[in-house]
Design a protein that fits this description.
Protein name: Beta-lactamase
Structural class: mainly alpha
Pfam family, one: Sel1
Number of domains: 2
CATH topology of the largest domain: Serine Threonine Protein Phosphatase 5, Tetratricopeptide repeat
Shape: globular
Radius of gyration: 23 Å
Order of helices and strands: HHHHHHHHHHH
């Protein structure tokens, strides 16, 4: 019985093995072959769809060589249509000064627009800015609140940051931060587009 099982296992192994060894028989698809060329994406983005504009911005940002100015251009187009991902990418690029001048206050403005749509990573970034006083005064209560919101909105790494931060806070401060997080409401009054 064991000999028959070994023989069956060897047979299965050798029938699958050629696809793994011979390049022309590989059973997987190269992921780079699946993404449309930039020209094709640009044609779609020029039709005005926010998701296509955002995806084109990502392609320019991740291209070799990277073209941050062109990425910012397309993110702004998508942001005009209130695309949360575009808001966040504009925040990230403003934060580090890629394609636009570095400006923490501008980064925070874009992050808040993304946060208003429940973008967890944008919420985390706001918390980080409060914890390390980037563009705002240092405020551990605000940092804790935003880390808490980020974790609740799917950015799970933020809960570790919140917990580490809590070690440097009093119980009263933590209670205030939790109260703010529970009662936070998105601000929908700010305009979508920033300066050109």
């Amino acid at each position: 019985m064991r000999a028959a099982l070994r023989l069956l296992t060897l047979g299965i192994t050798f029938s699958v093995l050629p696809g793994c060894i011979e390049p022309r028989l590989r059973p997987y698809v190269n992921v780079h072959d699946m993404s449309p060329p930039i020209d094709e994406l640009r044609a779609l983005a020029e039709q005005g769809n926010a998701e296509d504009q955002y995806q084109l911005g990502r392609r320019y940002e991740l291209a070799v060589p990277q073209d941050y100015r062109e990425a910012v251009r397309w993110y702004r187009s998508a942001a005009m249509q209130r695309h949360a991902g575009a808001f966040y990418r504009l925040c990230a690029l403003s934060d580090i000064g890629r394609g636009v001048p570095q400006d923490y206050e501008e980064a925070l403005r874009w992050c808040r627009l993304a946060a208003d749509q429940g973008h967890g990573r944008a919420m985390f970034t706001i918390g980080f800015h409060y914890q390390y006083a980037h563009g705002v005064p240092r405020d551990l209560i605000q940092a804790h609140q935003w880390y808490n919101l980020a974790g609740a909105n799917g950015y799970h790494a933020a809960t570790k940051w919140r917990d580490r931060l809590a070690a440097d806070m009093t119980r009263t401060q933590i209670a205030q931060a939790q109260f703010l997080a529970r009662n936070w409401k998105p601000n929908s009054r700010e305009p979508a587009a920033g300066p050109p």
